[in-house]
Design a protein that fits this description.
The protein has 2 domains: 66 residues, Type Iii Antifreeze Protein Isoform Hplc 12; 120 residues, no CATH class. It is built from 3 helices and 10 strands. Strands 5, 6, 7, 8, 9 and 10 form a 6-stranded antiparallel β-sheet that branches. Strands 1-2 form a two-stranded antiparallel sheet. A two-stranded antiparallel ribbon has the order 3-4. The chain is flat. By secondary structure, it is α+β, with helices and mostly antiparallel strands. A hairpin with an 8-residue loop joins β6 and β7.
Length: 240
């Protein structure tokens, strides 16, 4: 067999190999996409790196980060080890178990009942709610925050301000109508409930601004296990 023929044969075999590899990669990608559509994309979850005794104050060496499908990821598990450092285990924790609110107490030395992790805050917001809201949600429920503005510097609109935040508590609003500018000419109900939310510091600042400059806030309870995000959906009054 001549050298030129051997080279042509090698080129053909290489082309076939690359084509087969591309088809295999495409098939694997399709299978991965199908699995993710069923169980959700992988999300980071902090788990115990070793067996932990009750009363263990968590350090970086006690934790590791894994990925699991979003459908099965605990909704109250931290997504970075730094968020769990300083928490104290309430009972024995097996290696590989997610670090959730059910297995840890409050932050070490904080003595607070909410178990806030580093970087988190609890913030009270006055919201307009239906009479049934307190009957359908409980502490631990994930909620979205819907914001409505008034036409001061621009067109009035309603938009999704925050998604998938944890509700820590609900209570009646003292002096309803004081927390937000609840003028009666808009037809909007005054805030009737104070909701305590677990948020980041940046989200807490955002909610403070929303309370000062918006007309109305409402909570939308999420179904159990729903962690889907839609982004900043908004509707202008002129579109109605």
């Amino acid at each position: 067999m001549s050298v030129a023929r051997r080279r042509r044969r090698a080129a053909v075999l290489l082309t076939l190999s690359l084509a087969c590899g591309g088809l295999a990669a495409s098939e694997v990608g399709d299978r991965i996409g199908a699995v993710e559509r069923r169980v959700g994309a992988p999300v980071p979850v902090v788990v115990a790196d070793r067996d932990l005794d009750p009363g263990t104050e968590l350090s970086r060496g006690d934790l590791r980060l894994v990925e699991m499908p979003s459908r099965y990821a605990p909704r109250d598990a931290p997504t970075a080890p730094e968020q769990a450092i300083g928490l104290t285990t309430a009972g024995p924790v097996a290696a590989g178990s997610p670090i959730t609110a059910g297995v840890v107490g409050g932050a070490a030395g904080a003595g607070g009942p909410t178990g806030l992790r580093r970087g988190e805050r609890d913030v009270d917001v006055a919201v307009t709610s239906s009479a049934s809201l307190g009957d359908t949600v409980a502490p631990g429920t994930r909620v979205d925050v819907l914001v409505s503005t008034e036409p001061s510097d621009g067109p009035a609109r309603s938009f999704l301000g925050l998604e998938d935040v944890e509700l820590l508590g609900l209570g009646p609003a003292p002096g309803a109508g004081d927390a937000l500018d609840g003028g009666s000419d808009t037809g909007l109900e005054p805030p009737s409930t104070v909701a305590t939310l677990r948020v980041t510091l940046r989200q807490a600042v955002y909610l403070a601004a929303v309370q000062n400059f918006s007309r109305e806030l409402r909570l939308l309870a999420r179904p159990l296990g729903d962690r889907h995000r839609v982004g900043r959906a908004a509707v202008l009054a002129s579109e109605l």
